[in-house]
């Protein structure tokens, strides 16, 4: 069994993206977006469920915009363009479940720039089935 007190994990790690667990059909990732930052507009070929732990921001999915805050959950179906933007003065902390996995098992990206560079270099590929 894997068990996480997600708020505690968020307090302990301020990385932009940290893969906490990767299974056969899904993956759990925690993200911290700094004030004024964003995840960046993207499209995945996997489903994604995001749950917001702290901070405030804006979710943009297929052009639809909504405010997000602690306790909110957003579902992004595969193939939908999306972005999440921190609009508050504190970090926007969330965890996301990808189904299937989207990132390399155990990946830790301290900043968005590092995450982008790893993806571009092909060093952030999910495990193969």
From TrEMBL:
Q: Where is this region: Disordered?
A: 110-129
Any idea where the Cupin type-2 domain is? 30-98
Would you tell me the protein name for this molecule? Cupin
